[in-house]
Design a protein that fits this description.
The complex is a heterodimer of chains A (about 425) and B (about 375). With about 425 residues, chain A is an alpha/beta fold. Chain A is built from 17 helices and eleven strands. In chain A, helix 9 crosses helix 11 and helix 16 runs antiparallel to helix 17. The chains are: A alpha/beta (about 425), B alpha+beta (about 375).
């Protein structure tokens, strides 16, 4: 009896440490997502750890038109086991139509305990099902940080500029650069069919810097109409930068036509076309080859107004895993994402931030990533990208096109009213 | 007479000029794409492909070697080397040491960096960086305005064909595409040839209505049928796979195939067919011995069309073929994947375009002499 007890205790210990028991041998788990090369290879590497532990085989297929593909597959009944959603809006939509399976019990508690600002991640992954009951469907994995300004430290040194700590200082610095004959900002909104989205990030950041987070939440749910003075003010705050010919490389007319992937290159030109570029944490992928992050280019936190006293708000976005075709293996794969090593593999490759507090920060590829993650963990207010949470017709439609119109010279109030009317139209 | 002859000649000129203009219009972007496929992403975004063909003057940000390479010569720390690496044909016209003033010095000048530190840069990029104290930190930045010779690379082709992403997937995708394309070209031709003969030369009630129905099907967009058809495939057990893809391509290709071939076959001389009937040939014999050989141009032209459509198809493959295991990916899907998550890799796009048109070009040139004949044959009797 006692022998047996020891044996089972040993088995439990082994099971929790290594789990290399191959109990899922022969099972195939299919995963679909928006990541293509080079992210796809990293994802495959993460899944290979899971394969070793459980014996299951995991295949990942990326698609550039994931949003449409997953709908076709779900409607026709050939959905993959697990889907990686780039925005919560689409996942919420699929949950409402009954295409998603709730995550295992206890996942919500685990997220609350192990993710920084855990409750907000649970809320972002919780959607109403077909019957209108709230369930946890999404587990966030990989977060992007948006409130960042990229700059070249050596160019700042050459000109003797200091990193601004407040929005007031940032605007003063921009004026200083103009006075010295330079151009402070590179802004590009072009992104093919998604042209305009970088401006929505600006407006969201400005919203968080001029209004309390509750107002931001009301705006996301449209309790605060899009054409209210608070939102119009945030749009005009973006205009302070984008609509000023002296502030933007190429003049404000170039803002809407410059591709967002090309716009950061102005930082590296000789002489520099611009000194600062506000963009999310993924943008280093588009820096010229051989750019050394932390030395050739670095970032600072897009500061808040000192006068507004709203703390240090941070805007972010992220991808979430959800189950579209339930099997035991699929649930276990989601559970595997709780383990720090799943996060650490990607941390060591760069371009990956995580709210998981249990990971080893030494795993980050460089100091810059570590500092980026600290911004995320130290945020007094974290808010998810509003355009990703709004209904598709607004957040991925009229908000984008409205911002292009605004950057092109349209009136902020008129643009806001137009976006609000498109929101009214889908209700 | 002179008048008429003169007018014809003027017309000829106009025709020739238009042809040259149209060919140039078509070739110009293609050549641009070809040139771009030999350039790196940085080159593509920094200047146009037409500039890359000639030496150009560019503002470059260069960096000396790290201070870890310094040597102590006569009590002075020295770092020597070439800003462009080992060898280069670049020619520096002016240079500077801060981003605020990039044209302060001419080649041969010595710049004073303060505290006794100096740097001298020659026109070919060789430099001497000296300091009385030990140097530390990173290499000194040098901003040079230089004329650089054209530079091309085969790296993009290497990425697409050999080492791209998941190493073996381009070859696999190539064979998968072949597996889709060849049956998806042959099956509709075989069916359509039979159908076209029946609709052209066999008398049966409702023939005209049937032809009208086939013509009517031409206007049905395939997007309309995607989800219902996929559901049907899943219900009857075909699932996602090659069989379903062949069936889908066949179905979507048949209306045009039947229409094209029927119009061609109707135009064949009635006498030959009636002679054969009188001599006791069955319909099948007439079809195989007379109609098929005579219809070869039309068959070939449709084969080219269908081959190109299925080769370039992404939509049908994504819906009916590529399942969640990712084993059955095709060339088009593979190329999209190479473009990367945010789709900014123009150099890969240009290269992949040239890789993927290689086979269609072969098919086209092998069969193109039938193309015009086959297309015209149905329309003018």
């Amino acid at each position: 009896m006692k022998m047996k007890l020891y044996a089972s205790a040993a088995a439990i210990a082994l099971g929790t440490v290594a789990q290399a028991d191959g109990h899922l041998a022969g099972q195939q788990i299919t995963v679909a997502g928006p990541w293509l090369s080079p992210e796809a290879e990293i994802v495959a590497e993460i899944f290979s750890i899971f394969e070793e532990q459980t014996g299951a085989s995991v295949s990942y297929v990326g698609s550039d038109s994931f949003e449409q593909q997953i709908m076709i597959d779900a409607e026709s009944g050939s959905a993959p086991n697990v889907a990686v959603f780039p925005q919560p809006g689409l996942a919420a939509d699929m949950a409402r139509r009954g295409f998603l399976t709730p995550l295992a019990d206890g996942t919500a508690d685990w997220i609350r305990e192990n993710y920084a600002a855990g409750q907000s991640w649970v809320d972002l992954g919780t959607y109403a099902d077909q019957n209108g009951d709230d369930q946890l469907y999404g587990m966030f994995f990989r977060v992007d940080l948006k409130s960042l300004v990229w700059f070249s430290p050596e160019n700042f040194e050459d000109a003797g500029y200091e990193i601004p700590e407040t929005m007031e200082e940032l605007i003063a610095l921009s004026d200083q650069i103009v006075e010295d004959g330079g151009t402070p900002w590179c802004i590009g909104l072009g992104s093919g069919a998604a042209t305009g989205w970088p401006a929505t990030d600006w407006v969201e950041d400005m919203m968080l810097r001029t209004q309390p987070p509750e107002v931001y939440d009301a705006w996301v749910s449209n309790e605060l109409p899009f054409d209210s003075p608070e939102v119009i003010n945030a749009i005009e705050q973006f205009g302070i930068f984008a609509r000023n010919d002296d502030y933007v490389a190429g003049g404000s007319g170039a803002v809407a036509t410059t591709d967002f992937r090309d716009s950061p290159r102005g930082l590296f030109d000789s002489p520099p076309q611009c000194y600062m570029h506000r963009q999310a944490s993924f943008i280093p992928a588009f820096f010229p080859d051989g750019t050394e992050i932390g030395a050739d280019v670095d970032f600072f936190y897009f500061p808040a107004y000192e006068a507004e006293d709203l703390g240090a708000p941070v805007l972010g976005a992220g991808t979430l895993f959800a189950i579209t075709n339930p099997t035991d293996g699929a649930q276990e794969l989601i559970e595997f994402l709780r383990s720090p090593e799943a996060h650490e593999v990607w941390m060591s490759k760069g371009g990956f931030l995580t709210p998981h507090t249990g990971v080893n920060p030494d795993a980050f590829i460089d100091d810059t990533s570590r500092r980026l993650n600290d911004v995320l963990l130290n945020a007094t207010t974290f808010r998810f990208d509003a355009s990703d949470l709004m209904p598709g017709a607004v957040g991925a439609g009229s908000f984008w096109t409205g911002m292009v119109d605004y950057a092109g010279g349209a009136d902020a109030a008129a643009v806001a009213a137009q976006i609000q009317s498109s929101w009214d139209a889908i209700r | 007479m002179e008048n008429i002859a003169g007018r014809t000649s003027a017309l000829n000129w106009i025709v020739h000029i238009s042809v040259v203009a149209l060919v140039a219009l078509w070739l110009f972007p293609t050549i641009g794409l070809l040139v771009s496929s030999f350039r790196t992403a940085d080159q593509i975004s920094s200047n146009g492909w037409w500039q890359s063909l000639f030496p150009t003057e560019q503002n470059l940000t260069l960096r000396t070697a790290d201070p870890s390479n310094q040597t102590l010569v006569n009590g002075v720390y020295v770092v020597e080397g070439n800003l462009f690496g080992d060898t280069s044909d670049a020619d520096i016209s002016v240079w500077g040491v801060t981003s605020r003033a990039i044209d302060t010095y001419v080649p041969g000048d010595t710049a004073d960096l303060g505290d006794g530190v100096t740097i001298t840069v020659e026109a070919d990029g060789t430099y001497i960086w000296t300091s009385p104290e030990e140097l530390s930190g990173r290499g000194q930045r040098v901003f040079a305005t230089a004329t650089t010779p054209p530079e091309f690379t085969l790296d993009n082709y290497d990425t697409v064909l050999v080492s791209g992403g998941r190493t073996d997937s381009m070859t696999r995708a190539f064979f998968n595409t072949m597996t889709v394309t060849i049956p998806a070209t042959i099956i509709p031709i075989v069916i359509a040839a039979f159908a076209a003969y029946a609709l052209a030369w066999m008398d049966f009630p409702g023939r005209a209505l049937l032809i009208a129905a086939v013509v009517g099907l031409l206007v049905v967009p395939l997007q309309l049928a995607l989800i219902p058809l996929l559901r049907l495939h899943l219900e009857i057990g075909i699932g996602k796979g090659y069989l379903g893809t062949w069936l889908a391509h066949t179905g979507f290709g048949l209306p045009l195939a039947i229409y094209l071939l029927r119009n061609y076959m109707v135009g064949l001389p009635r006498d030959i067919i009636e002679n054969a009937r009188v001599d006791g040939a069955t319909d099948f014999q007439i079809f195989t011995k007379i109609i098929l050989p005579l219809s070869f141009p039309a068959l070939a032209s449709f084969a080219i069309f269908q081959f190109l459509w299925t080769w370039n198809d992404l939509l049908v493959a994504k819906v009916f073929l590529i399942d969640a295991t990712g084993q059955t990916t095709v060339m088009t899907a593979q190329i999209v994947e190479l473009l990367g998550t945010r789709g900014g890799n123009w150099e890969i796009l240009a290269t992949a375009a040239f890789v993927s048109i290689a086979v269609p070009l072969l098919v086209f040139f092998a069969m193109q002499r039938y193309l015009v004949r086959g297309l015209l044959a149905g329309s003018v009797k």
